[in-house]
Amino acid sequence: MKTISHSSLVLVRNCLQQYRCSYVELRRSRSVAPALAFGGLWDKALTAWHWGKDSKDRLFRGHAVLLMHPNELQRETAKAMLVGYSTLWGDSNIETVATQLEFTSPIVHPETGEEHPEYVYTGVLDGVVRMPDGRLLGLESKTSSEDITPGSLYWERVTTLDPQVSMYLPGAKAAGFDIEGILYDVAKKPALRPGKHETASGFAERVMRDMQGRMGFYFQRQEVVRLESEARRYQQDLWDYACILSDAERLSRWPRNPDRCRQFGRACDYLGVCTGTASLDDDFLFETRRRGKAA
Asked: What is the pLDDT along the chain (295 residues), one digit of tens a residue?
């Protein structure tokens, strides 16, 4: 069976040509966007952090992971954020049950109950936690540059439309965990920028001072559930995306989307391929990616 993941669906929604380059030809850029690199670093640190027994032990475990990161500014910024995160959440009475939980689940038509004949959905849930009242929740950790305070557009989108939340509930069940919802855990990346002659450690100290006076601006957690009607709508979306990919592969049609050639101030990795100024076969620009379970 072929697989669909959250990451691949992002590209399907953005541009089918981008999807083809990454998931059909299995070629990816050798350069990684700073935002993606920082998100991956934070994710690794939290995976270690969650297994600590208290705030001090968790901070130690997370910092041990960060110390291996070669980018000094990203490393020191993440260390500063982890201090604030540990201060706020480190002694919470929430038990870690599992981390980095991989799952595979069928793509089911919401009306007929039919399983898609070509595609299944694969994902990785950041964790499973047991709340103080005994309930099991999935854990999803994110970094964001958006406003994450309660009532913001960020939470409006997460609580109703976020596709990962919609798939984590059946996905976790397929992996053996009957979770009741998702504990959505978000850290806001600092909007502050280093001064011209400021060291990375000096910048990190400034970030920590800013966090001390407004922890809720930087860190938020909310429990998110899905109503049955919302889950069915997402099932239909997922089924439709699988059909779109089936048709694209069968017909070998991967239209470009010029509206997505530049996003978040950065050009698409495959812009040169689409304009004819670069080749996917150029090993200086691209490397062959491994197709993982939830890639």
From this structure: 999 999 999 999 999 999 999 999 999 999 888 878 899 999 999 999 999 999 999 999 999 999 999 999 999 999 999 999 999 999 999 999 999 999 999 999 999 999 999 999 999 999 999 999 999 999 999 999 999 999 999 999 999 888 889 899 889 999 999 999 999 999 999 999 999 999 999 999 999 999 998 999 999 999 999 888 888 999 999 999 999 999 999 999 999 999 999 987 889 999 999 999 999 999 999 999 876 545 5
What the block records as the tokens of 77 is 């910024």
Phi, psi of 190 (to 5 degrees): -60, 135
Token reading at 255: 């239209």
Residue 275 near residue 42, CB atoms below 8 Å: no
Cα-flanking dihedrals φ and ψ of residue 258, to 5°? -60, -20
How far apart CA 72 and CA 38 sit, in angstroms, is 12
The whole model's pTM is what?
A: 0.90
**Residues making up the chain, counted from first to last:** 295
Whole-number Cα distances in Å, 117 to 66, 107, 239, 242: 42, 9, 11, 10
Residue 61 near residue 90, CB atoms below 8 Å: no
Beta pairing, strands 136-144 & 182-188:
parallel
